[in-house]
Automatic annotation (TrEMBL):
Its main location: cytoplasm. PANTHER family: IMIDAZOLONEPROPIONASE, IMIDAZOLONEPROPIONASE-RELATED. Belongs to the metallo-dependent hydrolases superfamily. HutI family. This is Imidazolonepropionase. Its EC number is 3.5.2.7. Pathway: Amino-acid degradation; L-histidine degradation into L-glutamate; N-formimidoyl-L-glutamate from L-histidine: step 3/3.
Length: 390
């Protein structure tokens, strides 16, 4: 594959402090060279080496591709009516998930695959070059198995959300559902996934049930991540830390002890402000988390119930306006933070050796992602060195 030089970059976000200013490793008037699927050179545009192809950015900003570490793309149907009812005052509860479970079970593999493709194309246009995909709308062995298989056609980051909500046939006997998940679902589905997830929340699964599911996943070689503390203060954060989870996601309702536990752990707090926006939930206290030294990622949480968006730029704008993150913190969280949440050392930064995943904006700097909310600023996306969309 030919080498490519991106030159005359107005502001380059490298996320490598050794290459530029601050935690984002910012450089002005910069260039980047890709060789095949890898970044091989970063420096001043004036010093850029020749390459087989040259792309003139005309002073536009270039960032690492966004790393979406939390999405639920394997589903059928939508819940626009539930959203409208919520906007008229009905609160969000975990039970709405069952509507999507029914629609997903009734869908064909081809229908589910087409939805995943459509939403991945949408997220790519918004700049996401890596997308984690969860199962969780099947909640039978066969339906979860086909969900992780379909997800695995499109990403290496497949999560078995084995326990999302007790399905209707297990109403009132969540313990029996958990027993089935541990004995049958996880052994069958684990070879198709990298991660195990559980919705630890009132109306979904309690601490002991969540612990059982995550432990069974770990015993089958999966690494835990947790939906925790989304709607209420609960045991999700502590459980995630205790089990060495890669991330605990949502964390909108946390105690001082939860923040302390996260700060002293390798567990990333993944904030999903578009879910809080679409459910009128309180936003997480990102300032308290960041000021305590917690590693924070941002995700869009695309799903038909709480957050039917694939746009990390929208989440960056929300994180800055509503979570009081600085624009630099929000951009880091949607790139390097997502990579940390997925325990990936090859993405989330633009420095030699990293994967050639990059986004060029129709703007001179990354600040415009928050400064110009709702404007589709992503102009070009390279994934593995290939121009993926423009
Ligand atoms: O991340 N919280 C649990 N799961 C999804 C919502 C699922 C749904 O409502 O369909 C979330 O918000
Ligand atoms: Fe989620």
């Amino acid at each position: 594959m030919p080498t490519t030089v991106l030159r005359d970059i107005g502001t380059l976000v490298t996320n490598d402090p050794a290459l530029g200013n601050g935690p984002l490793g910012l450089r002005r008037d910069a260039a980047v060279v890709f060789d095949d699927a890898q970044v091989v050179w970063v420096g001043d545009s004036a010093d850029a080496p020749a390459a087989d192809q040259a792309v003139d950015l005309d002073g536009r900003a270039v960032l690492p591709g966004f790393v979406e570490s939390h999405s639920h793309l394997v589903f059928a149907g939508d819940r626009a009516d539930e959203f409208a009812a919520r906007m008229s005052g009905r609160p969000y509860g975990a039970g709405g998930i069952r509507t999507t479970i029914a629609a997903t079970r009734a869908a064909t593999d081809e229908q589910l695959d087409a939805t995943v493709r459509r939403l991945l194309a949408e997220s790519l246009r918004a700049g996401s070059t890596t997308v984690e995909i969860k199962s969780g709308y099947g909640q039978t062995v066969d339906d979860e198995w086909r969900s992780v298989r379909i997800a695995g056609r499109h990403t290496d980051e497949v999560t078995l959300l084995a326990a999302h909500v007790p399905p209707p046939e297990y109403a009132g006997c969540a313990d029996d559902y958990v027993t089935m998940v541990c004995a049958e679902m996880i052994p069958r589905c684990a070879p198709e996934a990298r991660w195990i997830d559980v919705f630890c929340e009132q109306g979904a699964f309690d601490r002991d049930q969540s612990h059982a599911v995550l432990s069974a996943g770990i015993a089958h070689g999966l690494v835990p991540r947790v939906h925790g503390n989304q709607l209420h203060q609960g045991p999700g954060v502590q459980l995630a830390v205790e089990l060495g989870a890669a991330s605990v996601d949502h964390v909108a309702h946390v105690s001082a002890a939860d923040i302390d536990a996260l700060a002293n752990s390798d567990t990333v707090a993944t904030l999903l402000p578009s879910a809080d926006f679409c459910t009128r939930n309180s936003y997480p206290d990102a300032r308290a988390l960041l000021d305590a030294g917690v590693t924070v990622a941002l995700g869009a949480d695309c799903n038909p119930g709480t957050s039917y968006t694939t746009s990390l730029p929208f989440c960056i704008a929300l994180a800055v306006r509503e979570l009081r993150m600085t624009p630099d913190e929000a951009v880091w969280a949607a790139t390097a933070g997502g990579a940390k949440a997925l325990r990936r050392g090859d993405i989330g930064a633009l420095s030699p050796g990293m994967r050639a995943d990059a986004v060029a904006l129709d703007a001179p700097s990354h600040l415009h992602l928050a400064y110009r909310p709702g404007v589709p600023l992503v102009r070009q996306v390279w994934r593995g060195g290939v121009l993926a969309s423009n």
